[in-house]
Design brief:
Chain A has 94 residues and is α+β, with helices and mostly antiparallel strands. Chain A contains 2 helices and 5 strands. Chain B has helices at 16-20, 26-43, 55-63, 83-86, 89-100, 121-126, 137-145, 159-169, 186-195, 208-214, 220-226, 237-252, 272-281, 311-314, 319-323, 336-340, 372-379; strands at 48-52, 74-78, 104-107, 131-133, 151-157, 177-183, 204-207, 230-233, 258-260, 282-289, 293-302. Classes of the chains: A alpha+beta (94), B alpha/beta (399). The interface between A and B is large, with 39 and 48 residues.
Chain lengths: 94, 399
């Protein structure tokens, strides 16, 4: 999917960030993101790679879409929410 | 609601998407919807067809019931935006053949059920083939590191996903890691769809996150050649409505331009670091997209420099032995290609919701969460058809 999923950077070790996705922490690779990423930044994760750093002014609107999806999708089999959860699996546990 | 045939149906008057729709800003959503209705009316001919090329756009449109907020004269079609769906049959066959030859395959979960000529990767797995689902190419590399035998990563997806494969290739993967690339590149297929006389698309909505990588400048040559507008839009329901409004305005004005309605995330140049890695590893070549056409420069293959990890060059992939079996009969009736070209809708297909359902898909469009058929099956088809009136007050999101 091309939606990706946003998460908050907790820690950066070389080319890998520990990223928090609504309480779930995963490793995300930083090989392709084109801006420096630091703890506190938000990134958009796609298949385990950060594809961009989310500009500060856009974080709230980005998170809102996902929270809307996740909040109502727990019980039902929702394609978008399933894709978002899949993206949150990341490349490995913290 | 599901009837005996397995078709999801909505009861008239309670379009599910609309009832669930909660815009962050209902006033703005209503204003956008009304403005869109005016612009489409001003175009003065119906229907006006525009196409998006992204499974996530279709998911958001269907999920949030956006078609109920669109004027009747505007037809928003999903084009070839599902990477799993356009992976061609012989490409699946290559993965299946390798798995049956005993090679360990790692691939994205969506690929498992995609039908090949004889069988899917899931079928090969059931027969004892070692097919492993990974979430990321990085996991496939880790898998290769942990074992001594060859691991072939069956790489699918558009440029946004190909960038990850490229990054993995450039980070010295172990010698037993190989790539079977079925990656595709979106801009060339827009040219093909734009030239199909049956499609009559008057403009394109481009996916915001893919354009994050490529930049909106990538669409300029297309716009110049085809004199069709392209609007880059985000995925929030309001972003999509705003993108469609801009696109309708460009159609009304006969303006062949690229408009960037997602400027917070998309620049003209895009992510250069990602592009550099993408094109260092891959080269575009012509190839067939499932059910659509031969797309010049539409396939991404490993450059000669990476021949040592190109599965096509390092393994003898025996397709002839695989093709000795007869193909399944139902596939001939599948209209997946016409659906992805925007010529037909899932509901035009006699198999949709009957022989072809998500747990037993006939065509690729019913397999992936980004496939038009699966999205329509899940969210109940074409939401606006159930509505008696369009574009009037409160047609959007009042709830």
């Amino acid at each position: 999917m091309c939606l990706g999923v946003p998460g908050k950077v907790i820690e950066v070790r070389d080319a890998v960030a520990v990223v928090d996705f609504w309480g779930v922490r995963r490793h995300v690779r930083l090989d392709v993101v084109d801006e420096p990423v630091e703890p506190g930044d938000y990134i958009l994760n796609h298949v385990g790679y950060a594809i961009r750093r989310i500009p500060i002014g856009e974080i709230e609107a980005t998170l809102a879409l996902y929270e809307e999806l996740l909040a109502r999708a727990e019980a039902e089999d929702d394609l978008m929410a399933a894709d978002v959860r899949n993206e949150m699996q990341g490349t490995g546990n913290d | 609601m599901t009837d005996g045939s397995g078709v999801t149906r909505r009861s008239p008057g309670t379009p599910r998407g609309l009832a669930e729709l909660k815009f962050r800003d209902p006033t703005r959503a209503r204003a956008l919807s009304e403005a869109l209705a005016h612009v489409v009316a001003a175009i003065g001919r119906a229907p006006v067809s525009v196409m998006h090329v992204c499974g996530s756009h279709e998911q958001a449109i269907a999920r949030f019931g956006l078609r109920a907020a669109l004027p009747r004269g505007l037809n928003v079609i999903m084009g070839p935006g599902c990477p799993v769906c356009i992976t061609d049959v012989p490409e699946v066959d290559e993965g299946v053949a390798l798995a049956r030859q005993g090679v360990r395959i790692a691939t994205y979960g969506d690929m498992l059920k995609v039908p090949g000529t004889v069988m899917s990767l899931a079928d090969a797995q059931a027969e004892g083939g070692r097919v492993e689902v990974v979430y990321s190419v990085a996991q496939a590399v880790d898998l290769a590191r942990r074992c001594d035998e060859p691991v072939v990563f069956f790489a699918t997806g558009f440029e946004t996903t190909a960038v990850a494969t490229a990054a993995a290739v450039l980070r010295d993967p172990p010698a037993n890691f190989f790539v079977l690339s079925a990656h595709k590149y979106i801009p060339p297929v827009m040219e093909i769809v734009a030239e199909m006389p049956e499609t009559r698309v008057e403009g394109f909505l481009a996916a915001g996150h893919a354009a994050t990588i490529t930049g909106w400048g990538v669409f300029e040559p297309f716009v110049a050649r085809h004199r069709l507008p392209v609007v880059v839009a985000g995925f929030e329901p309001l972003d999509i409505l705003a993108g469609l409004l801009k696109l309708a305005e460009l159609v009304r004005d006969g303006a062949a331009d690229v408009a960037n309605m997602f400027p917070r995330c998309v620049t003209k140049e895009g992510n250069r670091r990602a592009q550099e890695q993408l094109w260092r590893v891959f080269r575009p070549i012509g190839g067939k997209w499932r059910g659509i056409a031969h797309v010049p420069n539409g396939n991404l293959r490993l450059r000669d420099e990476w021949a040592h990890l190109d599965a096509r060059r390092q393994f003898d992939i025996d397709l002839r032995r695989l093709w000795d079996h007869a193909p399944p009969a139902l596939v001939d009736a599948c209209i997946c290609g016409d659906i992805m070209a925007g010529i037909k809708a899932p509901t035009d297909c006699g198999l949709f919701g009957r022989e072809c359902v998500p747990h037993a898909p006939v065509g690729a469009c019913m397999v992936s969460s980004e496939g038009t058929c699966k999205i329509w099956h899940q969210y109940g088809g074409h939401p606006d058809l159930a509505l008696p009136a369009q574009g009037g007050d409160g047609a959007v999101c009042a709830r």
